[in-house]
Amino acid sequence: MSHFANQTYFLIDVKTKRDKGDFNINPFVSDQEDLLGLDQNFKNSFFFNRGLQRFSFVYSFLNLRKKSIFSFGDQDVNLKTHQFQFIHKLGKFWLMDLGAAINYNSSSSDSFLNRNYDLNNLDLNPKISYLYNQNTRLELFYNFKDKANQILDMETLQMHIVGSNFQYASKQSFSVNANASFYFNEFEGNSNWGYSPTFYFAPDKYYGPLNTLKQFIDACHQRGIAVILDIVLNHSWGPSPFVRLYNEGDYSKPTAENPWYNIDSPNPVYSWGYDFDHESPETKKLVDRINKFWLTEYNVDGFRFDFTKGFTNTPGDGGGYDNSRIAILKRMADKIWDVKEFVARHYHVIIQLKHD
After folding, report:
1. Looking at the domain assignment, is residue 158 inside a domain?
2. Which pTM value belongs to this model?
3. pLDDT tens-digit profile of 255-282?
4. Distance between CA 113 and CA 107 in Å, rounded?
5. Which string of b and e fits 118-153 if b means at least 16 CB within 10 Å?
6. Does residue 141 belong to any structural domain of this protein?
7. Which range marks the domain in which residue 200 is found?
8. How many degrees, rounded to 5, is the angle at CA 73 between CA 71 and CA 76?
9. Buried-most residue among 100, 159, 312, 317 (CB within 10 A)?
10. Does residue 276 lie within any of the structural domains?
11. Which segments of 267-338 does DSSP mark as H helices, in order?
12. Longest dimension (CA), the chain
């Protein structure tokens, strides 16, 4: 039995203007002046050990062209992609999956020159999975994207995503799917673990456009995977507008008039940035708005709140039993579970108490 296989797919759809009784059924011969539309799709995949998970390899080449003629001008879109995937099972429980893609994507239109682009893309997707059994697996993944526009403003984008997936399904039709990725909301700088929160209603530009994030979350939901947002509501940093509205000037600490922050943190051991006053009515309103925004605008399935032992004004390191903190967290969770837009969905609330 051969270890090699090849699969080829080709589709072409040509629309041309007919002149009187002329009729041409050959899609490869057409006058560019009579061309009304072109949709061309070619894909070839070469396989080694297909489906065996033993040094399995697939290389795919994809070539797409779509040309559309509009009343205001034409648009020509081209995409060429080289895709690589290597899968190998290590022993009984570990599965290695290495993916990569090189893309060349361009769009040109004489009518909208400022919207033209010519992108070079690199995408790396290594993943390691622990297969406990047929129904249970844990995956750790890393995704690196590098995009560079070769024309106009020469825009560039680099994106790093690190996360994990957990999947469990029982014989009683009970299943659990969850995805955990690092912070999305805007923070100071670019390369950051997300512990410097600044703008709570905006994904950081380093992670790509907001619609791309929405597409990622929708794709997870289509596969039965929950998306849990890891978020920091213990503190903010200087550029936050909520800090700068009432502070001592520039990026200094908040003043007594600031309705959201403590002047000084009540926790002398673990303290970063400017500490939220979680007992303030205005802070409670802000926290509820932030949580509702991510639930309804991006459809995340819940939150993991970082360093929740800082959600208190009780002096100390946050390590002891604290009734006020428990009340604050319970109120936050109740507000999340009361979101009416998606009352049929079940939201998850995860808290982190221990710091070290």
Report:
1. yes
2. 0.53
3. 999 999 999 989 888 888 899 999 999 9
4. 10
5. ebebebebebebebeeeeebebebebebebebeeee
6. yes
7. 90-351
8. 125
9. 312
10. yes
11. 281-297, 323-337
12. 89
